[in-house]
Amino acid sequence: MVDDSLYHTLEARAKELGFDLFGVAEAAPLTEELAHLNEWLAEGNHGEMAWLARNTERRCSPEAVLPGA
Is the C or the N end of the chain the one with fewer CB within 10 Å? Predict the structure, then answer.
């Protein structure tokens, strides 16, 4: 997680920019969510939104999108 000093610096900057909420989350793979997403897609719940079925692994893995995350 981010150290307190950096967190507070980022939080202050977010408020300066007009954000009402600010948070930091771990950039971890979403393994359970990927399984749920694939099941949901297999059931056809995405309708005509074919883009949802593309790149599902990338969608659930920060490392795949941003190496080193």
Answer: N
